[in-house]
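Bit of a strange request maybe. I'm writing a small parser for structure token strings and I need a real example to test against, not something I typed by hand. Could someone generate the tokens for this chain?
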Amino acid sequence: MVFLGCVRDEWTFPTPRDASTDATTTDATTTDTTVADTTTTDTTTTDSDATDATPADGAAPDVTAPDVGAADDRAASDATACGEGPLTLYRGEGTTLDSAGDQHAAATGEVAYVEGRFGQGFSINGPRNFVTIPPTVGNFDGDFTIALWFKTRYWGVMLGRRAGCWSVPPYTGQDFDLTPEGYVAVEVFTSGPGYFSVHSPPGFNDNAWHHAAMVRRGDVFELVVDGSSTATHAISGDFVDPTRSPSYLGVGRCTPGAPGNNGTHDGRTWYTGALDEVAYYNRALSPDELMAQARGLCAP
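Reply from user aminoacidic:
Good idea to test on real output. This should exercise your parser:
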């Protein structure tokens, strides 16, 4: 297995960011993940992609100077919410290495690296392009959080883990999906036995960066998008997979042509877009931590 790029010599999670990079504002650098990034971006504009088919609105941008003092106060307050970092982290900094441990992933096909939410991120564009995460990652017998950043104007399975589709037991795992309508949707399988699905409101395939997290806290499962809870569901059983199935960035078992697919499918498709900072925690992140992450205040 060959890894491209390099890894930072030292990495501490989280490091509070300056409030001027608050993730609630529109990312000034827009990377079109369907092609190689060769265009110089004008960072003086709010949205550099003039061809974006889903603009937020047509109004002129607000150019009023920010209240720097208030922003600094908010940053200092929010930074205190940044807790202990993840067990496993895939940052996409030109490589599939685990930046928090030794659970290194592997890229298949034409996985590229483009401008991410922080530094670089993964560009995964359609069929037979994906990243395989080792089966030792994502096994939890209690609370956990799985979080990532995504950016796309399309849809597909962002993160999938299950042993099989339809005619074989799925065992434990999840399909972390973005639908054509822009719903962030999660299908969850536990040892409970348990199965359920939850989803966010629509519209998150708007070619902007969004933070999404699935959180288990006791007997409650929560889907959190951009720091706000969008759905909850009762959960029982554990999340330990006896089949030792890997996880995949960019595809799920029920996608036609997916690795390990048994010929059945459920309508899900290959992901087309960017992913960044894919993180696994063996604890439930607090609402304050999730909001701080969504604001870009807890980052490498």
